[in-house]
Amino acid sequence: MTMDKIEELTKRLIDFRRQRDWEQFHKPKDLAISLCLEAAELLEHFQWKSDKEVMDYVNSEALNKIQQEVADIAIYLLLICKDLKIDLYEAVSKKITKNEMRYPVEKSKGRSDKYNKL
After folding, report:
1. Is the dihedral of CA 100, 73, 83, 5 positive or negative?
2. How far apart are CA 69 and CA 30, in angstroms?
3. Do residue 92 and residue 74 come from a single domain?
4. pLDDT tens-digit map of 29-83
């Protein structure tokens, strides 16, 4: 997804929210709570399923439901970024750079250990 598309989506979300006078409900705490709740709803699709069951489930009609949960998560994330003036591209880019330093390939390849255990 390009930055132009992210900005377009964010503008649509802000317009949608403004037209409904929902800014009053969208304080950072409330958006963060909603983001967590939606992430939990996404997790429910995978709970208690084996790897094979997950693949069967994802290849069924359930993918549309999963996409809707992912969209809900993205909506709250974009609103949080807009309201707190966080540049999502910059934040992710900085985090990748930090993780590249924390998890050098020669120490972390094929391992799931946390950076302080490598």
Report:
1. positive
2. 17
3. no
4. 999 999 999 999 999 999 999 999 999 999 988 999 999 999 999 999 999 999 9
Nearest to 5 by CA among 101, 89, 83: 89
Q: Are residues 20 and 77 in the same domain?
A: yes
Q: Which residues contact 46 (CB under 8 A, 6 or more apart)?
A: 54, 57
Q: How far is CA 6 from CA 9, 18, 82, in A?
A: 5, 18, 11
* CATH number, residue 57: 1.10.287.1080
Whether 37 and 66 map to the same domain: the answer is yes
Structure tokens at 53: 């069951």
Same-domain check for residues 82 and 31: yes
pLDDT given at position 2: 84
Distance (Å) of CA 18 to CA 25, 26, 36, 56, 57: 11, 11, 23, 40, 37
- Which domain range does residue 106 map to? 88-118
Enter the pTM of the model: 0.89
